[in-house]
Amino acid sequence: MFKVMMWFAIIAMVLLLVYKSQQLREQTVDLKYDAFMDMVRRDAIAPGLTIHRDTVKGKLATTNQQFRVQLPDDKALIAPDFQEIMQHAEGVQFEGPSAAENWTPHLLIFLFTGLLFVGFWVFMLRQSQSAGGQAFAFGRSRAKRFGEGSEKVTFEDVAGAEEAKEELEEVVDFLKNPKKFQALGAKIPKGVLLTGPPGCGKTLLARAVAGEAGVPFFHISGSDFVEMFVGVGASRVRDLFEQAKANPPCIVFIDEIDAVGRRRFAGVGGGHDEREQTLNQLLVEMDGFEPNSGVILVAATNREDVLDPALTRPGRFDRRIVVDAPDLRGREAILKVHAKEKPLAEDVDMNVLARHTPGFNGADLANLINEAALLAARRDLPKIAMNELQDSVERVIAGPERRARILSDKEKEITAYHEVGHAILAELLPLADPVHKVSILSRGPALGYTIQLPLDDRYLVSRRELLDKITGLMGGRVAEQLRFQETTTGAATDLEQATEIARNMVLRLGMSEKLGPLAFGRRNQQVFLGQELGELHERRYSEDVARLVDEEITSIVEECYTKAKELLSENSEKAAMIVEILLERETLTGEEIRALMRGETLPPLVRPEPKPEPAKPSAEPERPAAAPKPKPAPEQPQTA
Question: pTM for this one?
Fold first, then answer.
């Protein structure tokens, strides 16, 4: 397109040059009218004067230089001068306008304007026909096709979702060998709905199905159906299924289908009419194609609860596959897949790393490996070591280190007591998760952090475990109060989490001694509200019960607070000793915390020596170099 516009510019320049060629053909001198009349009276004009409209052209008698004179507009004033011109000048000629002179400028302007207009429409038409332009194709589907020329993804590229892969292998088998199913009268599911939290590999699984089956794969997002023009969404749905039916067998994948498949409701006004029309057309198209037509619809969402029941019923999405966060073995397999093409040091143990990443999904683990590679490159290391991987875990959980944030000695001591309070309770409480690391280095918004990691994957939590969790959260506030006899804002997040756990124990889990095994209220079902409003509980109990609920929540939190205070008071000497070491080292591992709790002594801290700076050549070699001053040691936090 750039070349076409260049040609238009060249043509325009040529036309302008042609238009100006007559004016630039000869070198002429412009004279004022008074000077011209003075030359006429002095006979300084050569014979052959030409008068053309309002212009007089001729040559000077002495230099033979051509000149041009513009006559004044008022012809009555210059009429007497023409008598003098006729008397003194010889060979005066009068020229009238030619036909070409009248229409040539207008023709050039018309051609130039027409070429610009045609060029603009050629540009717009080419843009509308290209893959990225949809200026005149509002009703066409925006689905992208990944076929043989695209990067192939197989089930080997997917790890940590073995159950989901087993369910999808049947779909692949049907696409490869449909006659086996048709001979038995079996009908392959029309649609497969992949549900689960974000980042667990739903889109990757759908692409792996297409890669294994070797069929075209049409990918579109649910938001691509909705447009500002009425009827566009339904038209795009029809066009999408027409493309799919024309390329059997194939897979149609709709990502984030909740954008178009939300539950219909009897609302006021027509604000959602366009989206509902698109959903209705999608329902009709899913009923329209035959079960064994070779077209399989795969959709993914992390909000299955907001989908319309007509969309998820059997006959449309017959199969529902949950893609959840991976377990220990799944995390280890995912880490190996993402680290397959990266240089790893000999000390890297993926099993240990998988144990340190409970709750991580596939996207988190991929980000972890990438962060470790970036850290190794930043540290000029040839391979990724276990140290970089461990630092990446903390970076993903708590954020990057903020060494530029300088705390006062008082704030460092408060932060140290706060984190040590969490760590001691985590070791003393029998059902609490063990400590992995304690640090007073600022990461993200936190001034310090304590990382607790479970020993294995758990799916059920008991009442005692929740009480120990609340007690551990109170450790920071209690440690500050015992040491400084005052409280700070550092425990705000801990208090929020503790209160929320206690509230769920009373309202949802039936773990209240006074109220018994009852669930009060239910989650708000208004699916068009945001997450913050949609997660509110609908109140379905009286004021008396509400008072008891508040009393039970307060009782649970106060009970845990009292227990935390008793445990930390009994271990105040150990807390002071651990705080002193933490202020010196800034970071302690879980093994070091447990050793200090047992009364053991840690080996001396070995700090890496700073690299010597290269010697700079002296600008004045005759002067003796001064003795270098010793570099000051890195500033250490003051102990309590």
Answer: 0.68
